[in-house]
């Protein structure tokens, strides 16, 4: 499967949007160089300072922003001087991809090792042992529990995993 550079950019935007919301994408896309305060940024964007702070701390959580604190001599308040860590985006993305990969691998193993039964009315998905206990009748609606062919699900997970491996190769 081919992975394009634009897909990596898209992935980064997706990640930022997921952890910060849309405002984070706006702020990140500004390409801000050097330090700034949340106050300056809020003013420039015409948004609430608390929203800017929330975004910046969320970016900080995943490693895409950092700050230093300095006491304002006049007011005595602590000022936060922020910077966006554009140089870390590949590293951050790699970590996120690795997390997703590990989750998918665990899921794949689970699907591979486990035989599931589902209610034909869509109420439940249970393991074989449980289905036996229920006498292959749905505990909710009484409908029949049927063997779930997981081959398709497994193939989908494998495909996703391959794509993630490709992306990881591309950004490392
Ligand atoms: Zn049912």
Automatic annotation (TrEMBL):
<feature type="coiled-coil region">
    <location>
        <begin position="83"/>
        <end position="114"/>
    </location>
</feature>
<feature type="domain" description="HTH TFE/IIEalpha-type">
    <location>
        <begin position="1"/>
        <end position="90"/>
    </location>
</feature>
<dbReference type="InterPro" id="IPR036390">
    <property type="entry name" value="WH_DNA-bd_sf"/>
</dbReference>
<keyword id="KW-0238">DNA-binding</keyword>
<dbReference type="GO" id="GO:0003677">
    <property type="term" value="F:DNA binding"/>
</dbReference>
<dbReference type="InterPro" id="IPR016481">
    <property type="entry name" value="TF_E_archaea"/>
</dbReference>
<dbReference type="Pfam" id="PF02002">
    <property type="entry name" value="TFIIE_alpha"/>
</dbReference>
<keyword id="KW-0804">Transcription</keyword>
<dbReference type="GO" id="GO:0006367">
    <property type="term" value="P:transcription initiation at RNA polymerase II promoter"/>
</dbReference>
<comment type="similarity">
    <text>Belongs to the TFE family.</text>
</comment>
<dbReference type="InterPro" id="IPR002853">
    <property type="entry name" value="TFIIE_asu"/>
</dbReference>
<dbReference type="GO" id="GO:0006355">
    <property type="term" value="P:regulation of DNA-templated transcription"/>
</dbReference>
<dbReference type="InterPro" id="IPR039997">
    <property type="entry name" value="TFE"/>
</dbReference>
<keyword id="KW-0805">Transcription regulation</keyword>
<comment type="function">
    <text>Transcription factor that plays a role in the activation of archaeal genes transcribed by RNA polymerase. Facilitates transcription initiation by enhancing TATA-box recognition by TATA-box-binding protein (Tbp), and transcription factor B (Tfb) and RNA polymerase recruitment. Not absolutely required for transcription in vitro, but particularly important in cases where Tbp or Tfb function is not optimal. It dynamically alters the nucleic acid-binding properties of RNA polymerases by stabilizing the initiation complex and destabilizing elongation complexes.</text>
</comment>
<dbReference type="InterPro" id="IPR017919">
    <property type="entry name" value="TFIIE/TFIIEa_HTH"/>
</dbReference>
<protein>
    <recommendedName>
        <fullName>Transcription factor E</fullName>
    </recommendedName>
</protein>
<dbReference type="InterPro" id="IPR036388">
    <property type="entry name" value="WH-like_DNA-bd_sf"/>
</dbReference>
<comment type="subunit">
    <text>Monomer. Interaction with RNA polymerase subunits RpoF and RpoE is necessary for Tfe stimulatory transcription activity. Able to interact with Tbp and RNA polymerase in the absence of DNA promoter. Interacts both with the preinitiation and elongation complexes.</text>
</comment>
<keyword id="KW-0175">Coiled coil</keyword>
<dbReference type="InterPro" id="IPR024550">
    <property type="entry name" value="TFIIEa/SarR/Rpc3_HTH_dom"/>
</dbReference>
């Amino acid at each position: 499967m081919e992975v394009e550079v634009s897909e990596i950019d898209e992935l980064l935007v997706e990640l930022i949007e997921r952890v910060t919301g849309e405002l984070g994408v706006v702020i990140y896309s500004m390409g801000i160089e050097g330090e700034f305060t949340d106050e300056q940024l809020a003013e420039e964007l015409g948004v609430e300072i608390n929203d800017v702070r929330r975004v910046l701390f969320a970016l900080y959580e995943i490693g895409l922003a950092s700050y230093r604190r300095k006491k304002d001599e006049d007011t005595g308040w602590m000022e936060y001087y922020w910077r966006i860590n554009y140089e870390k985006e590949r590293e951050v993305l790699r970590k996120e991809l690795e997390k997703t990969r590990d989750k998918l691998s665990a899921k794949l193993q689970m699907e591979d090792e486990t035989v599931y039964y589902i209610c034909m009315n869509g109420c439940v998905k249970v393991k074989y042992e449980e289905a036996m206990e229920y006498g292959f009748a749905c505990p909710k609606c009484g409908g029949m529990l049927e063997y779930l062919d997981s081959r398709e699900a497994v193939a989908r997970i494998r495909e996703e995993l391959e794509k993630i491996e490709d992306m990881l190769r591309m950004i490392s």
